[in-house]
Amino acid sequence: MTGLSGRVVLVAGGSRGIGAATSRLLASLGMRVVVNYRSNDADADAVVEAIRAAGGEAIAMRADARDPHEVDQLVRAVSARWGTIDVLVNTVLVPFAIKPFQDMTWEEFGGKLRDEMLVAFTLTKAVVPAMVDQGYGRIVHVATNLARQPREEMIALGASKAALVQFARYVAQELGPFGITVNVVSPGMVDTEVAGTLSPQVRARTVAATPLGRIAQPEDVAGVVAFYASDESGFMTGTYAPVNGGLTMD
């Protein structure tokens, strides 16, 4: 993939799961990686150490992506160190309730919707001014196939990620004239801690229904994120890329 070497990427939620895999891959392709995290110093430091051990450049920076003040401080710190942010990857997964709609409170449902959009809005708002000034930017949001394919007890996650998909399309339309692309990577079930909270029966059904015969690894998703960050995707914006082994074929 071209156009990545030397560029600066902010991976929000970059210390675990899909974010960690994305951080490691983009660093291996020559990017300078900011591993953003909210609370777990040890996980973030481990990702940075792995990147540096492999010869890459990375720093860990703490900020709650729901807090505009903390995110603005983060962006200023990155700009002071490396000059700019060329690519934003939003892999933040705000906790959510797994239960039927009839058992759910508004606080559980509305809180997830609010936090999901607050993260996307806050991160995008913070990086866009510099991207506009330089006439270049890549923004990649990670959603889920549940945004289009409902599954029992996943209404909070699915509805909030559906909102994220539409948000990305509107921002893509507005920012296209400035040389900024905005795209969504939408995995199915991924072998992370979230999948570990699901029952073995749900996991088995998902594998059985997937033509490629397994659930995704974080690295499967990271590869598609890297494509959207690269020059090869330069004429793609407002798109939605399913990464689910053929479970759903959008």
From TrEMBL:
The keyword Thylakoid does not apply. It comes from the Bacteria. Pfam families: adh_short_C2. The keyword Glycoprotein does not apply. Keywords: Oxidoreductase. This is SDR family oxidoreductase. Belongs to the short-chain dehydrogenases/reductases (SDR) family.
